[in-house]
């Protein structure tokens, strides 16, 4: 399997993968969020999300859904993730505060046993100030398992991951590699990980650094090409 990045829609690619094949699903889907109203939600991702990366050329897909559509869409790809994950293994999905409750619904609709919510603390410098209020300093990682959690491994992870985004990352919503590397312990040594929404391929890069196997999908050709180039390098 090694490291494979596919270009295309996850809903088309996931059904081609074998059942009960992956040790871990770790992914960061489009949140279709970034605003309380449909007008702000429909803005380009690099406009609505705080972004201080290298360029804004890579507006990504899947950001135009209202909440009901987003939940149905999530339940569809999560059901495919359920099929391809090994029994007892973990799925972990990044999300923001607005879509957190909806994602926990979708994960259970797809069949997963919801196990909890971990926190990505972006640190005080990693987010916009909020006048007269509190910073949105955290994103969340909703996690669950296919059936009961397996008992044949000894991995103990924290519930809060403190990590700042790298200013060098070119994808608008990249996730820090050290945090992903910590989470990938749940795949086990030499294990296989699936990321249906690869973006800049941070999960695949982290998996490669750890000697894991990984499969990713990215729908936007320009993002796929840049991520594939990074992986080849
Ligand atoms: C939130 S970003 C992932 C960022 C990634 N974690 C990183 O660190 O670079 C989600 C990515 O999924 C892609 N995407 C959206 N809908 C998709 C679909 N149906 N199939 C595959 N990729 C999709 C978007 O273009 C975007 O690049």
Q: Which descriptors would you attach to this protein?
A:
alpha/beta; Rossmann fold; 233 residues; 22% strand; 8 helices; binds S-adenosylmethionine; 29% helix
Q: Can you walk me through this structure?
A:
The chain has an 8-stranded mixed beta sheet with strand order 1-8-7-2-3-5-4-6, with helices on both faces. The protein has helices at residues 10-13, 38-41, 45-48, 67-84, 100-109, 177-183, 202-209, 221-232; strands spanning 3-7, 22-27, 85-95, 113-121, 138-145, 160-162, 192-195, 213-218. Helix 7 links the parallel strand 7 (192-195) and strand 8. Helix 4 packs across helix 5 (100-109) and helix 6 (177-183) crosses helix 7 (202-209). The protein starts with a strand and ends with a helix. The longest helix has 18 residues, at 67-84. 29% of the residues lie in helices and 22% in strands. It binds S-adenosylmethionine (SAM). Residues 9-11, 28-30, 60-62, 171, 173-175, 197, 199-200, 202, 217-220, 223 line the site of S-adenosylmethionine (SAM).
